[in-house]
Amino acid sequence: GENVEQHPSTLSVQEGDSAVIKCTYSDSASNYFPWYKQELGKGPQLIIDIRSNVGEKKDQRIAVTLNKTAKHFSLHITETQPEDSAVYFCAASGGESDKLIFGTGTRLQVFP
Amino acid sequence: EPEVTQTPSHQVTQMGQEVILRCVPISNHLYFYWYRQILGQKVEFLVSFYNNEISEKSEIFDDQFSVERPDGSNFTLKIRSTKLEDSAMYFCASSSDRGYGEQFFGPGTRLTVL
Question: Helix, strand, or coil here: A6?
């Protein structure tokens, strides 16, 4: 079945450094790849997404890249701040289904 | 900014009891979803709903589960006879478009089955 792998499971960085989270997906029909940020006790919040017709998308300090051939996509956060600390989930959907298949999550800690 | 709301925020129930989790999706959205997240695990798809019928459901969504849009604003998830393993966070999401549409999540209902 469809599967999304996510690495690393935890990531600790110093404030101001960059953070990179990587995901791979198994379903070649996937064509929509959102990233969600989940803070403690809250629901997932969409922070950026990318569709299969583009290879990269940037929004201020956040960027996402997609390699459809290799079936992987990555989240890049530059100039990290303590408020970036949260759990980040990648997801994929596409083909006949619009359900989101989530990765296992990455707990990002940004130390001041 | 419009948002998805869910009630209650926390529900505690005894095993075998029925629970109804409620959601108010964003008003102009047409596609509705339920997901769940067992503590410390990833978010899992349960069911999608469009035009007053289920579009897709996962293996988790067995006969104990049902969904309903009883009026123009609410979207509910019912678990008929809760089991211990139903304890999880349940998230409602809505979207204005299928497929490429962004899914906006509510804050969740924490269900605890004793």
Answer: strand
